[in-house]
């Protein structure tokens, strides 16, 4: 029936296949884990392709949500058969994740209340552990899915952000997978503005990155500058805590352990907005310090240049001035000496002449 006859027209074959898919959905047992999640997802892919009744598709999506942690990445890569521009059906995965979270909440709230306190407490602890493990597996699955679909250039930032923020923060103990997805999205969308890149990176918690991821993020030019500062700050805190714990273990000083735990608790309890503001203020202070040091260095450089130019000017100007003045003074002194000598010679010759003149006069007077 699925293959159809060659003589039948195509609409008849599609109608028969739709009837088969609807019948399979109707006869699936309602118990959880009665059918594998991989089979349910393949059935859901066929249902979307053949335009099965929406009520049956919704029922099948709920069944997948009940055991969504068993899915694989290959099962989730369902093509988009609607008018959407994206290559994969992102909205379908979003609905499956919502059904999973609703089912987890219903299972946690339906814990037995008539049991004794100790048994109920143990049951709640076991149920909480199972839920957290399932959420962690689903978080890793969603991060891998985001990394795969982020290469689609038609994937909008809003869809990426909504799917990444659908899980609670407690589902991810490490955000390395989410960081890979963000980096892949930034590679495929190089035309994002600074505001859009900051908005994208807000879905990631820098304190949950490993040291390797922090080292990669610190050298990543695609990330905004504020995110890089937050990554460096969280890496410094992790390294200091690791060094403190190592030194305390080696020294055996147990009295300092509460201080480390209190410091760690204080860092974890600090609001993200305060940490962002502190990081931005620290960055501005460092920038101003750098600019001030640059201005000081330029000022000293200019002062040295000015002193060297002054020395060169003095070397060039002093000989000229000295030669002109000295030559002038020398000329004046020579002229003065010459005039003095001439006056002295004239003065010394004048009395002799007068005597010669006066002598004949006297002689003449005597003769007369």
Automatic annotation (TrEMBL):
Residues 285-312 form a coiled coil. It holds the Pfam family NPH3. The keyword Coiled coil applies. Residues 343-368 are annotated as: Disordered. Keywords: Coiled coil, Ubl conjugation pathway. Residues 358-368 have a biased composition (Basic residues). This is NPH3 domain-containing protein. Belongs to the NPH3 family. The keyword Coiled coil applies. Transmembrane segments: none annotated. Residues 1-238 form the NPH3 domain.
């Amino acid at each position: 029936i699925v293959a159809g006859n060659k003589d039948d027209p195509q609409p008849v074959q599609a109608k028969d296949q739709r009837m088969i898919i609807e019948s399979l959905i109707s006869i699936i047992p309602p118990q959880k884990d009665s059918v594998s999640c991989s089979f349910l997802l393949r059935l859901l892919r066929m249902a979307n392709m053949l335009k099965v009744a929406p009520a049956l598709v919704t029922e099948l999506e709920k069944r997948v949500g009940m055991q969504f942690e068993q899915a694989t990445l290959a099962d989730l890569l369902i093509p988009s058969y609607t008018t959407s521009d994206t290559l994969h059906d992102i909205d379908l995965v979003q609905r499956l994740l919502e059904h999973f979270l609703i089912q987890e909440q219903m299972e946690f709230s339906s814990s037995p209340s008539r049991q004794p306190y100790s048994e109920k407490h143990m049951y709640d602890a076991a149920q909480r552990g199972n839920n957290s493990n399932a959420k962690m597996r689903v978080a890793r699955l969603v991060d891998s899915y985001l990394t795969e679909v982020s290469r689609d250039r038609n994937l909008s930032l809003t869809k990426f952000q909504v799917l990444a923020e659908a899980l609670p923060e407690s589902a991810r103990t490490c955000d390395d997978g989410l960081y890979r997805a963000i980096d892949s999205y930034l590679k495929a969308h190089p035309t994002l503005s600074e505001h859009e890149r900051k908005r994208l990176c807000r879905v990631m918690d820098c304190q949950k990155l490993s040291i390797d991821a922090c080292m990669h993020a610190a050298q990543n030019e695609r990330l905004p500058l504020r995110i890089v500062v937050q990554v460096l700050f969280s890496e410094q805190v992790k390294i200091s805590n690791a060094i403190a714990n190592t030194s305390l273990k080696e020294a055996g000083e147990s009295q300092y352990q509460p201080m480390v735990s209190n410091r760690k608790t204080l860092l974890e309890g600090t609001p993200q907005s305060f940490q962002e503001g502190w990081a931005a203020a620290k960055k501005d202070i460092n920038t101003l310090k750098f600019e001030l040091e640059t201005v000081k260095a330029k000022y000293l450089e200019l002062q040295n240049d000015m002193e060297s130019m002054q020395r060169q000017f003095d070397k060039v100007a002093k000989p000229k001035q000295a030669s002109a003045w000295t030559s002038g003074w020398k000329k004046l002194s020579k002229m003065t000496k010459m005039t003095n000598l001439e006056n002295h010679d004239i003065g010394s010759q004048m009395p002799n002449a007068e005597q010669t003149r006066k002598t004949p006069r006297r002689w003449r007077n005597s003769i007369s």
